[in-house]
Predict the structure.
Amino acid sequence: MSLEWVFHVPPLRNVEVSFKIRALEPLRIGAGKDTEGITDLPIVRMLWKGGQEVPVIPGSSLKGVLRTVGESLWSSVIGKYVHEDSGGNPVCKGASDLMKEIKNWKIPIDEARRRVARGLCPVCLTYGVPGFMSKVLVGDFFPAYYSVGVIKQASIHRKKGTATNPREVEYVEPGSLFEGELTLNNAPNWMIALVLASLYLIDSGFVKLGGFKSRGFGAVKIEDLEVKAKDLKPLDEYDKELDADKLSDLGYAYRMWTSMAKELKNRYGDRR
């Protein structure tokens, strides 16, 4: 099979994934320090319907979590950190030089597809690198309903055992519900399974969102997940067919990712 899916043209298919995120624990996605507001550490807010400022889970924050989880999933397959040879860079080694070469069109399109598919790991192919657009577009998640709380927290002086630097911290209270969606463009089935498997780990409580995770914040539940996809045929020889009717079951997606990852290792496992 060809590697037409590697770039965003020609358009092959879009897969829309909508779901809700329910806070099981206090949830804090911070907006940084506030020197003039009512709290020291406010949460992120955006304008919503009626011009009201409401708490929001930014798509950029959620995408960052998904990418990090994807790195963990792929690292567990190949038995080492996916970018350990990249000098601390969180993307594939040589990605910058590769994309410059592609951008200058020094090679035919079919060869460009082959080099990108071989030169980037599954995580970078999914979430992009500078010069290569992400296959995953994550929207902001706005609240269906919510409540906000404020607590006072302080650091503990390790030698004296006393509280220092007391501060007021804003958070979204448990029970609050956010809704939104993400879209996958020209994504092969293994990529769809990788994203949904990452959501599975979030839903299962293995991964939390936001800050203050070690203080009991960040556990969420994925609810009302719906996957809209018309055609899920394999897009290349390393892909496998997915059952669109079962994709709302994140456990199924996780199992399919595990199965597909074994085949992907043949292509990406040893990239020296």
The chain has one domain: 4-268. The chain has a mean pLDDT of 88. Residues 59-78 form the longest helix (20 residues).
